[in-house]
Amino acid sequence: MAKPPLLEVKNLRVEFPTRHGTLVAIDDLSLHIDPGEVLGVVGESGAGKSLTGAAIIGLLEPPGRIAGGEILFGGRRIDKLPDAEMRRIRGRHIGAIFQDPLTSLNPLHTVGRQITDTIAAHLPLTPRQARARALELLGEVGIPAAAERIDHYPHQFSGGMRQRVVIALALCADPKLIIADEPTTALDVSIQAQIIVLLKRLCSQHGSAIMLITHDMGVIAETADRVAVMYAGRIGEVGPVSEIIHKARLPYTIGLMGSIPSIGEEVERLVQIDGSMPRLNETPPGCRYHPRCPNAFERCRTERPDLMPAGPSRVACWLYDSPAEAPAARPIPAAARATGGHRARGAAAAATLIEAKGLKQYFDVSPPLLTRILERTGRRIVRAVDGLDISIAHGETFGLVGESGCGKSTVARTVVGLFDATAGTIDYDGVSLSTREERARNRSVQQKMQMIFQDPQASLNPRWRVFDIVAESIPEARRTKAGGFKERVGELLRQVGMSPLDGDKYPHEFSGGQRQRISIARALGGEPEFLVCDEPTSALDVSVQAQILNLMVDLQRNLGLTYLFISHDLAVVHHISTKVGVMYLGRIVEWAETRRLFTRPLHPYTRMLLDAVPDISKTGTQRAQVEGEVPSPIDPPGGCHFHPRCPFANARCRGESPENIMVEGTSVACHAVQEGRLPAWKTG
Amino acid sequence: MISFILARVLQSFVVMLCVAAISFSLFTYVGDPIANLVGIQSSDEKREELRESLGLNDAVPVQFARFVSRAVRMEFGISYQQKRKVSSIIAERLPATLELSILSALLALGIGIPAGIYTALHRESWFSHLVLSGSLIGVSLPTFLIGILLIFVFSVQFHLLPSFGRGEVVQLGFWSTGLLTESGLKALIMPAITLALFQMTLIMRLVRSEMLEVLRTDYIKFARARGLSNRTVHFGYALMNTLVPVITITGLQLGSIIAFAIITETVFQWPGVGLMFIQAINEVDIPVMSTYLLLIASFFVIINLTVDLLYYFVDPRLRVGRDVKT
Domains in chain A: how many in total? Predict the structure, then answer.
């Protein structure tokens, strides 16, 4: 540490004055970033990560304000600078990248103009030079045909390309520090991989340091040099990335790491941290984590720990205070993950519960007739699901993964009958439920299928009490039996780990995880056998996700449920599923038993996804670059849909759509596999 | 582009045809036109003869087709009361209304938009609060009351401005203008303010809320994070995006300024088409009423068409198709 740090934050305090008193969002936070270093800042939502970033670049949204501490950039104090001077630092010395590339660009200006505007604000270049530099930057971030694309508007770029433009904008005045706030969260796995690689490469070329704010440990594991773990407005632990991932010392980090599913290991249950992060107005005294901490002792409840050295890391935890204070009676906690093959679940060959064949779901998104005639264009049909076969046995969990736009949510909705399938059959336990008439005739069978949605905030009626929300799902016939009705709702709430007393409250009084529990209780009301879960944990923090996943595993064991589990998250699907299907543009390109699929993937797309996914088991590993993005399902490529991105494509792949074939227990639709053109999958 | 305009123009035609049908039905269903044309003494034969010669015995679709083809040639018949061509009455009255409406629209836009921007950018300043509370008056007081109050203060109490009429006008070809004489300009002030006040406050509040919305977006945050100057962020980025939705509403409001002119013209005895329409209603002058209906509808259609085209030029998302290739 010969050089002084590039950025130093000392005892930062951020407050929000409200009518009910002042809320302290960030309390006594100190950190530093060295030149060229990647500092990962992780934590669950509400930990104050984004606020820290906003405070550093002086963009706190009012009424939020810096109430204490100082921020030094290259030794110069910047937290008290007047706005005009701060503006010269933003963009010039400290750049920023935000989460959503779709909304980060001004829709009314060309990307070229947005870049040259920014260059003009910082560098003494003529308009012509600025444009030349903009072109150069666009080429550098990997935008093909930059000379032509520079005059395009943001909406003409795909999501991944837009995030590249955002990076070009952040880099255009060569800042020494980039604050990247969840730069890949809104992107698909394969694009996420491209962006991370790009960001890292560019920053090392330009010698810029990165403050990488994210909730995704997988991204941190691959990208960061050092990691700071935040909890409730404070840094709990900070240290080199390998220490944090493999030898976490803070009980919270240990719990957090254990609660993240990984494609590298199989566990029956995830480590569960009960409860959730305290709200700003009810932060507990002492260590803020003590109410959830399994290792808390007296001192934690009263005294606030500050960062203290522990090995190569620094930890804010009394367990690591002087040895005299922490006797052997308090063992240093270690990651305890109950291992064991959960694939044993439902492994016995069970009868088929639900089977869909040749399922198609098309949506007509044609422009109005008049426009079609005038522009001589035909109808536009989105082939969301395009000939899909799926068969799920009793007690099984079928995981369906794919990138956004591949049609996985449409499958969920079509299977439960929210959409009328364009073609194909759906059989449930021998009863055909393919058409609306059949579903109406077999209401009682239909009710055995229930659905859990992604966003518990949007799927619960905010004006209803929880009791009514859950009660509504209990079928009429059973509702008239007056006596047991109330008890039944209470029992449902208990089943999902809530109290019957919670029935009197409204959804907004609960946290995200609790709301998802309520939607599960609602789904259970009709005593279903089959639950379709559409991204049930995507809107949740990892520790809460672990609670919900554990709950789902318990419910499956106790009630004998069968799941169709849909997610974009490979690790989650790997954790919970017995079988996994990979979807690409409306078709399942490969399905197999979970372990088989993840250890011996056959389809090039599956291999690409597995290569791309950031995972905590991949710390510091180099990954293969993945090219291209998912094309539009309106006009999918002919032949095999995947051929434009496939390194093994030949003439047959371009012309002929592959059929599913069975190869050693894996069903795969790929000419290359069939013809034996594919190399073996690297193992290990 | 061409197909977009064509589609819009075709839609406008359909709208105009519908309005023409309503306008036409006034003749058929509101009173008997013959009774309005002939004296009480006329014999039944004479009435029948007139009916035949005017084509009133033809089938309704034939009559409608004739009505439309005449309207296209700007022939709207003869006023029952004034016994003059309706087209020439309108030509005489229209300049007064247009001058009043356009000036009001300019006032509403010229004050409403800057005030909206100011109150959005300086949310906490005392002047913003003052403007906002003041705007409540504009929204809540009915137009005629404001007109009468203005007349009471500036005409009755202080004798500064005329209380009615257009003052002296100058004839420029077919156009009569009050903008070139002192009395004409003086006469224009109060009606224009009265007519503009409501729209002005509406536009101001709209611009303000849209702008506040835009200032919260990610691309504004990102623009600030890149160190762009406040001027670029506010006027280059935020204002443009604010105006996209504002244009639509504002266009519709301009149409209603012309339509609402009826009340203002009545209060100030302004010799425009609005006043003409009120008089026509009093006198059951069907040709004048139906022509006024067509006229206002065509204004709305034209303004809407213009707005759609403007939208097309302001928002590249409509103009430039999404690129499929990546």
Answer: 2
